[in-house]
Structures are given as structure tokens and as C-alpha cells.
Design brief:
alpha+beta, flat
Length: 185
């Protein structure tokens, strides 16, 4: 059996959720899976506009690659839905996948990734690192126009603007580790 890309694609419309399982092992197959999940929804709404938010869930060896290219996934999903009908629009793709390897397994590794995993686990409590982040990254909020800062939806950028560096580290660490582990394969 081939590895699963993700457990499911969920598309939400008007508070309802539909799920389509997809066993494809390549990131390039996300658009096709989104199209398959969206087709029945487009048929249900007829000629009305269908606005979708796509969620990718489950464990996958592609976790790091999916997280690293959310904008590409969004473009692919939009293209797939628009290709079915000009009456569909994907507003967002949420990657809620997880790596096939647990964080405990990453921390137990005896290589650089294991070292980094252990370092990142302690990083949110490292006062020197948090001060350094504030000095280096905190200027971003000062330079950003207030109207633009208020409209930020990107979670890591929001954490940066709010000065919540421990949360920024906790949220960035799994992405970084998944990305590095994915680059190994």
C-alpha cells in the first residue's frame, strides 16, 4: 500500500463538513484531491458561488513539504476548483498534518536534528534567546504600518507583532523539524 498523503481533505461550506480520503503520496496530487472533494459541493450549490476552506489532516511523510508551501497549495487548490467550475473559490488551505515520526522520536535521535529538537524544546524558556529575538525580529512591528499590522492573519507574524516569542518558537519548532526531516528523505 502506498503512503498516504494525508488522512482527509475537509471542505467546509455553511458550517457543514465533507471529507474525501486521498492516498496519493505526492504533494502535486493535492489539487486533484481537492477537486474530487469539491465536485459534489459544486453540484449541490448549482450556479451559486461556493467558497471553500480546505483542511489537510493526518500523518504524512510530506508534512514538512506541505507546511513549507502553503501558498503553492492554495494556488493549486484554487486552480483545481476553478477548473471544475468558475463558481468555486478556495479562500484558505489549512495544513493540519503531522509528521509520521513523533516529536519524542525526533528528540531521541543522535544526530543534528535530534540536537536541534532538544534545543528547541528548551528555547521558549531561554531568556537570552528571547531577548535576541526581540532585538532582531521585534523591529518588524515598529516598521510595519499600523493598519497593516492590525490586519495580519498569519499566525507566526501575529506572534512576532505581539512580542509573543515563546509561542512563536513553540509554533515554528515543529515546522522547522518536519521540514528538516523531510529534506532528508
Amino acid at each position: 500500500m502506498s503512503p498516504r498523503l494525508f488522512r482527509s481533505i475537509s471542505t467546509s461550506s455553511a458550517g457543514k463538513q465533507w471529507t474525501c480520503a486521498s492516498p496519493e503520496p505526492r504533494v502535486s496530487e493535492v489539487g486533484d484531491a481537492v477537486a474530487r472533494a469539491s465536485q459534489p459541493l459544486l453540484e449541490q450549490v448549482g450556479d451559486r458561488l461556493l467558497v471553500l476552506r480546505v483542511r489537510l489532516r493526518g500523518r504524512t511523510p510530506l508534512h514538512g513539504r506541505l507546511l513549507a508551501d502553503v501558498d503553492g497549495l492554495l494556488a493549486e487548490a484554487r486552480g483545481a476548483v476553478f477548473g471544475l467550475s468558475g463558481d468555486g473559490w478556495v479562500v484558505r488551505v489549512d495544513v493540519e498534518t503531522r509528521p509520521p515520526t513523533s516529536s519524542d522520536a525526533l528528540r531521541a535521535r543522535a544526530d543534528a536534528i535530534g540536537d536541534l529538537a532538544r534545543l528547541l524544546e528548551q528555547a521558549p524558556q531561554d531568556a537570552d534567546l528571547l531577548r535576541q529575538l526581540e532585538d532582531d525580529v521585534g523591529l518588524l512591528g515598529v516598521r510595519l504600518h499600523p493598519d497593516a499590522a492590525d490586519a495580519v492573519e498569519d499566525i507566526p507574524l501575529r506572534r512576532t507583532l505581539d512580542g509573543d516569542y515563546p509561542a512563536l518558537i513553540r509554533e515554528a519548532a515543529p515546522w522547522l523539524l518536519a521540514r528538516l526531516a523531510a529534506d532528508e528523505s
